[in-house]
Amino acid sequence: ATVEVLFPAAVMSTVAMSNGELAIVCGLWAQFWTQSNGASQYRTIDAYSLSNSAPYINTPYAELYSGALNDYQLAAQKAVTANDWSYNLMITVMRAYTFEVLVDLFDRVPYTEALQSATILQPKFDDGYTVYKGLIAEIDAALSKDFRKGSHSASQIKTDFVFGGHGNANFADQMDNWEKFANTLKLKMYLRMVNAKPSEAEAGIRGLYQKGAQFLNLGAGLNVFVDAPDKGNPFFEFEGRRLNFNNLRASYTLTSWLSKNSDPRASAFFGAANPVPSIHQGDYLIGNNAAATPVIKATDPAWLISEAESYFMQAEALERYFGGAGAKALYDKAVTTAFAQVGLAPGALITAGGAYEYPSSGTLDQKIEAIIVQKWASLFGSHALEAFFEQNRTGYPKISPVYSKDPAYVPGQLVYSPNGATGAGNFPRRFVFPDVEKSRNTNTPAEAPIYTKVWWGK
Amino acid sequence: QNRTITGTVKGKEDGLPIPGVSVKLKGTSTGVATGTDGRYAIRISSANAILEFSSVGYAPQSVAVASKDVIDISLGTDAKTLGEVVVTALGVSRAKKTLGYSSTQVSAEEINRASPTNLASGLQGKVAGVDISTTSGQPGGSSKVILRGFSSISGNNQPLYVIDGVPVNNTRPGGAAVVNSIGDLTDNYDFGNAANDINPNEIESVSILKGAAASSLYGSRASNGVIIITTKKGKAGAFKVDFSSSAALTKVSIVPDLQDQYGQGFSRANNIAENGSWGAKLDGQMRPWGSEVDGVRQYRPFSAVKNNFKDAFDTGKEFNNNLSFSGGNEVSTFRFSYGNVYSNGILPGANDTYKRNTIGLSGSTKYKAISLNASVNYVGKNTRAPRTGTPKSGVGTTFYEDILQIPVDFPIRAFEDYKNKYYNVDGYFSAYSQNPYYSIYENGATFKSDRVYGNIDAKFKASDWLSFQFQQGYDINNIVDKIWDAKSAATPGSWAGGGNDEGAVRKPNVGDVVEGSEKYFEFDSKLNALFNKKISTDIDVNGLVGFNFNDRGSRVLYTGVEDLAIPGFYHIENSPNNPTSTQSSTQRRLFGLYASATIGFKNYAFLTLNARNDWSSTLPVQQRSYFYPGANFSLLLSEVYDLKSANISLFKIRAAYGKTGSDTNPYSIYNTLTKANINMGYAQINFPIDGVSGYTISNTLNNSNLRPEISTETEFGAELKFFNNRLGLDISYYNRVTNDQILPVASAPSIGYNFRVVNFGKVRNRGVEIALSGTPIKTKDISWDIMYTFTRNRNVVLALPDGLNKVVLKSAFDAQLVARVGQPLGVIEAPVAKYDPQGRIVVSANGFPLQANDLGAYGNSQRDFIMGLNNNFRYKEFSLGFAIDYKKGGVFYSGSADLLNFVGNSANTLFNDRRTFIVPNSVVEVKNNAGQVIGYAENTKAITESNVFAYYYTDLARAIAYKSRIIDKTFIKLREVTLSYTLPGKIAKKIGAERASVTLYGRNLFTWLPKENRIIDPEVSNLGNDLASEFGEFRSGPSTKNYGLSLNVTF
């Protein structure tokens, strides 16, 4: 095995999960889309009725460990043996990203004892905080190496789906971008800790800025997909090519917000004129036959951290710890980038008096809400996973006290599914432990109800 | 004093002349054979001469010539006498009395009574300790044969098939390709297992070795028992022609019982494009139905269609013709045979067919001390099979999955006119399913194999007590198969293209074509030294020492492409996409050294000792040699004591102890990389991507410290015959423990692997086999033979590795087939409801039952017992026979039931007449602020009429839905009924025949199922023919029954 064949396979494995079925599930919970009334594939998700053996829990869990993480581990060993610190950084960042997805979904996962098949067959679970600290330390260690030393051949650069530019990137740019990716990932992880470990979050973020850390000014993601069977964007391959978009329909939660704001992204997201015909979230037993289908194409890129996401995070960091100077500019840039993702421009929406104008004079909470709600909308598509996490972290978009059919409903607020099995107001906050682990590892912790927040949750 | 003795040899029972009987002058090599008229003439030179008459199937007789010139004798058949000879391990014939283990021999006649096309169906219900299922109604479909229970958790549980001393391949095609790759056909196409290639008409007899003591000389592959097949050979005597021909009709046997109260619709709304019967109550009025095409809908009474499901199928045809020529003299013999099977199954048109041509040629010759035998067999097979299970999403459709979804008030058979504007791709009523007939006429799979097997066997008799044997066997199979799915998409705006009342558009299928090639080879060489020596008047020893080399492997290559450019042209290049290929190659070798000796004392006590050592290429170097011994003992009490006064003609007790060692699948030692095909469930991402190739560490962690598996078996038994052999009892008890099984055990993915190959634990099978045979009536004109078999096997998993409490063997949705310590292998677990301490069902906020935290057991796949009953009445030339097979107990998962529940076609969906109801005896949890349950309150949340359908599916009603899809698998089948008429010898002679008979037969004519199972024959499975298939079926086709007529003539 060589790093050159292991690394791209592992990266694709991470992306196929994070931007595939997990994005579908989390997009249902972030209320971008809902279960179609003409099909039943995702009803259990919209009904918050999770089974330990559900494929959308087991497949990603098993693939991320035995597909992605196991390959990263062997690739890292090979890179270290060869003193190839560039691949080492790339691998370490991707490994950290992958572990973070897992621990954010499950709250606790095996980390310190994971991936040691020769000695530990039933790894203990680590709490999220331990995993986070470990991952940040791993990234720091990789950054401390001389990863700019040497160079990569064009065919090696091509194995970097994230920044390799199909083999056309230059090695120095490639490494600059990986460093930015590493910093932005750390920023993301510190921001996740603002509720549970506020001082550590602050210290970490201040530390990044003090060192003059550069953050992503381009999207970190894969743009290698073509419209051919088994070679397209994972979300499209799953829901589109194989399930023919029979299941997902526009959610009234998102479409009512787009409509209220006359947001031109409505037609880009759903291929229908604003207001987009939609189904109230979770209302699949009644539904609306004319509801629009989300538009996700085979050739869409799959983001790990999108460019807009990077700016939204920086804006939040500036508001939280640096008095907000420059936050508006980053917010405006973020919204503009988010629109540009779908080939549009916000125009008057972000200028004074516009619906998305930055609340410069508002409270911190109002500012954070503006940032996160815009971020939420920007994560539509195969990056929906992050929208679910960020709602859990910040509480934005807000939870609606009434169902969306109620006249008092405020567009864009999340509603509790009418078929919900968890009891009113108990929104899903985490996955249950997968049967593939639970039945084979006696160290699997006792189950918490899925409406229990994860360690960093609000 | 040279003179010639003449005479006629006739059968004791029927008085007919017996041709080909060997007549030998005792103590010399002089011998002749009887002619077709049973006559012989032999020259003798001494008045003290003794003539020995022998023929297979008859008890030999010796007659002193004295002064006689004519010696006419009658030979009695040999079936139940002490002199019975059986074929044992390595093709060695031994007197049955010397065996210390249970051995069952079944004759050609018993197997072929109802003209089966394969051996397994000819054995069903006839042998104790053997569980045989026909896993599909597809002509040429697979058989599952399990001897003394399942013992391997994920390996192979099928017995080893040995033909004339040589092991042959029994692979099921499509299983060798990489799992989930395009060549993995396991759940979707049944092209039959290779043992079904053997033409049962070529079989002289079958010997079934069930236990380790009996089978261990075969080594590694015999741990699940051995089926030893002896083929027909030419015999010294006149030229003989055998001809048999049969023609049968095939009909569908068990079809689901559907509800007849509610018509098309879903959720109580009569949306016309819905694929289910959740609509309005049927009222018998003329109403429009189905799609609207050109503004017009069709009319028919709004009532359930009678026999709807049954009428969806055709009556199939099956022809089975066999012709053979044989003959020979004292020096050489030959036999040539040709067999042809043509079967067109129950699907309309020639869309499920099985064609098989078999040619066999065998011969033997002798020169001085050397004798040579050789055989070559060719099997040409051509099969067309429909897909079962679930198709690859977005590519094709499956008949069985679609037919289950047709509303009960729609006439299924009308849809066969699949080009009609109401039923075609555009006009088919449902946007959620496809016309089932479209997929059988437009999609398909063909399979063609050319297989050659046989052996060359040379014997050299070095002295009167020692001979040497060299045998070289071969089995080579070349398979090509092809699968295609039509490209189909409803025209936009047409009924199924969005022009329906729901605006739903049917998922287009892009079509595909897959070309596969599978090659299998096996070469088996043996060198034996055989000895047979009388040491003293009381003691004799016979046995063998030998060496075996086995080399076998496979080459499998599949290439496929999705999305056809030109519809209907099924060619790999016909696509804008690049084809993808998957490949696997295996080769394994094994050396074995073995020895066996039987010591006989005074002809009533026999002790056999055997041992074998194997060296297998599939095990780590340091562990590849393994040794396993065995011993068995038989004592003929009826020879020691005179039991005649007690009417006991035979009383034999036996005991055996044996081990079998077993290696593993090739390539289980070192870790491997595999091409990265990232599986997402319904979809996948396959490398290369963007011109980059990706490889991933295999998800199975191999093991370089593997040890061989060892099974240990102890067996006790007794054989009794009473009243001059009119009543017989054969009883065995066995206890087999399979230890150190080598298998990939599911592991926690967090270790980096989903499976680990390990040696672990134990599975124990214990059981009792009883065979009771009797001949209540036996006169010249009337006879009645009856045989009853009873088998009870109990298996239990004694240990699982690493403190695991279960190992999942197979799953469907949330249901799992698992191994649990202390439980039988194959417990079926699925979601169960939560109950409060008072036993009331707990429902969630939405009114549907809450699921308990852990899966619950619904039973296991193991049977309580199996019984077989065989009867044969003869009155003069007529005989009437039947065989009944009763398998009691066990449960299975039905994927057909789950779909029938989902669409509201199943009879159990009529609960409460589908009106609004509150789940009976239900409560809700009362929680405190911390979210802890502090009590229970009455549930007031109803399941509304429009939501009743959800009560039968796994999304909202997961906690209770599995009750209706995990079903009792008990059944009783009338396996065979035969009525034969044998032409009296004189009449037969007039048409130049020696024997002629006509038989009316039926196979599986009647099946009785318990009330709970209104869905499907529990024998069918599209999950292979091993342990995984014990889980049940996933939208498999129905089983079938046959009626036919056969003619057998010997010239």
Strand content of chain B: over 45%
**Spatial strand sequence of the major β-sheet of chain A:** 1-5
- Strand content of chain A is under 5%
CATH class of the largest domain in chain A: Mainly Alpha
**Content-based structural category of chain B:** mainly beta
Main sheet of chain A? Answer: 2 strands, antiparallel
CATH class label of the domain at 119-234 and 244-250 and 323-388 and 443-489 and 509-676 and 714-826 and 861-890 and 970-1050 in chain B: Mainly Beta
What is the architecture of the largest domain in chain A at the second tier of CATH?
Alpha Horseshoe
Helix content of chain A: 40-55%
Q: What's the Cα radius of gyration of chain A?
A: 21 Å
- Residues in helix, % of chain B: under 10%
The rough form of chain A would be described as globular
- The average pLDDT value of chain A, as a whole number, equals 95
The greatest inter-chain interface is formed by: A-B, 86 and 82 residues
- CA-atom Rg of chain B in angstroms: 31 Å
